[in-house]
Specification:
heterodimer; A: 280 residues; alpha/beta; Rossmann fold; seven-stranded mixed β-sheet; three-stranded antiparallel β-sheet; 11 helices; B: 186 residues; seven-stranded parallel β-sheet; 30% helix; globular
């Protein structure tokens, strides 16, 4: 059983050896991640802290494993459908559309977005940026190469968002998967097409300490199921960063059960899971 | 009142039992009731509505960091783990499924047991896997009160039997007795 002292010990060890600061991560899930680290590495908290201090590549691996990296293609199809029929069409007249995927993990949502943009004829005008705290995850996202069997269920999500129109059931388009990815059942892989893989700009970024690193504001920021791992204080800090990084009228899209709390909430209008920065 | 919260876990065969239990709790029930039920990953909506038809207490799927209040029923949202965080609020997580389940009953029960200690009532109902058994054990180990639905009455008794194997549960009750007991908690 990991105690509060163990958690502090771990956070301090990381802080001393790197620029990462996990002090404001959400208490319950963070403790559980440490428990999992100890079990997976067959170590106690002292051994773990010592190895973090001495071995930088181990530290990076720990940071990768302590953060949660579960993501899906078109996770929450209703959200993507709203994006497709109600949000993105409003941006189509813009010469450029700036999109930031913050905490992109292994990248499935970036590819979901790129596929959607392509279907809407908005691929060229979109500038897509993606960040994550972890370089391994960014590398995976860049490769756009996923386990087929693991992602099999998510092809249903693709069908719902890309092939069906909930506003008009007769409007069905047959979009073959091969338009966007290659499936190799023997090798158990789904590989995104090259034109998708070349599109996004990937950068390492830590929401705890880094500001907007792109010298541009954004029309759309997606940060889904990331701030659930932060406490209220850090959540406020991150929402403030997003608020400052959005154009007026820009959209912030959080996870299905995340919300903007705290002082900055007044700066947004909310409809379902979409936050729109108000005009002042 | 010796208790601060009730947490109920169930899976296959528990829907009707849960519906019956929550229909019996009055609108002014003095505790929060947390439900952690396995359900199909892609059935996102409609579940709250279905449960709400007969309930007198409001049923909510909490957002991350929502405060926990008495007189409300909280349903763990589909595809998230539901934790109870310091400061009497919820926290959500999308980390890997546990016992093939997200939400995992064990994880919710662990965090509730840690947070409420002897002031928690944990209830395990009908279900087809062993998720929940270790969770109920942790409720017991932290001094809380443990109840399982009588396996003879369960549509699928795997979860209740696993719970009874994992710990020395306080009560094995039929649905009606669970309801009586929750209505008369002191």
């Amino acid at each position: 059983m990991v105690t509060n002292e163990d958690v502090q010990r771990f956070i301090t060890a990381i802080k001393m050896a790197s620029t990462y600061n996990f002090s404001d991560y959400s208490e319950r899930s963070f403790k559980r991640r440490i428990e999992k680290l100890l079990v997976d590495n067959h170590m106690d908290i002292n051994q773990l802290s010592l190895k973090i201090a001495k071995d930088n590549s181990f530290l990076e691996k720990v940071v990768r494993d302590i953060t949660v990296n579960t993501t899906e293609l078109f996770r929450d199809p209703e959200m993507w459908t709203t994006l497709r029929y109600q949000i993105l069409p409003k941006l189509k007249k813009n010469k450029s559309i700036f999109i930031w995927h913050a905490g992109c993990s292994s990248g499935q949502e970036i590819y979901s977005m790129l596929i959607l943009l392509n279907e809407l004829g908005m691929f060229e005008q979109a500038k897509v940026f993606a960040t994550d705290i972890n370089s391994d995850m960014l590398e995976t996202a860049k490769q756009g190469n996923y386990k087929y069997r693991f992602n099999l269920g998510y092809l249903d999500n693709f069908d719902k968002v890309i092939k069906e129109n909930p506003y008009n059931y007769e409007d069905k388009v047959d979009v073959p998967y091969e338009k966007y990815f290659d499936i190799d059942k023997v090798k158990d892989t789904i590989t995104m097409k090259q034109f998708l893989r070349e599109k996004a700009v990937f950068r390492k970024h830590d929401l705890v300490k880094d500001g907007n690193i792109f010298y541009s504001k954004f029309d759309l920021i997606l940060c889904r199921n990331v701030i659930i791992y932060f406490n209220n204080k850090l959540q406020n800090h991150v929402i403030e960063l997003f608020n400052n990084s959005l154009y007026r009228d820009g959209y912030l899209i959080l996870g299905a059960h995340e919300s903007v709390l705290g002082p900055v909430a007044n700066n947004f209008d909310r409809t379902k899971g979409f936050y729109r920065k108000k005009q002042f | 009142m010796n208790y601060k919260a009730i947490i109920i876990g169930g899976s296959a065969g528990s829907f009707q039992v849960v519906t019956k239990i929550i229909a019996s709790l009055p609108a002014n029930y003095p505790l929060p009731v947390m439900l952690c039920l396995h359900r199909l990953k892609h059935v996102r909506s409609g579940f709250v509505e279905a449960l709400s038809i007969k309930a007198q207490m409001p049923i909510l799927e909490p957002n991350d960091k929502d405060p926990i209040k008495s007189g409300k029923i909280y349903l763990a949202p589909a595809n998230y783990h539901l934790y109870i965080e310091l400061g009497n609020k919820f926290a959500l997580s999308t980390e890997e499924a546990v016992n093939h389940s997200r939400p995992s009953i064990d994880l919710s029960f662990f965090s509730a047991a840690y947070n409420y200690k002897q002031k928690l009532v944990g209830v395990i109902l009908s279900g087809a896997n062993k998720d929940g058994a270790m969770g109920l054990k942790s409720v017991k180990d932290n001094g809380g009160l443990t109840i399982v639905q009588d396996p003879n009455e369960c549509q699928v008794p795997t979860m209740t039997l696993a719970s009874m194997n994992a710990t020395n549960v306080d009560h094995v009750f039929s649905t009606n007795r669970i309801i009586d007991y929750l209505l008369n908690l002191e």
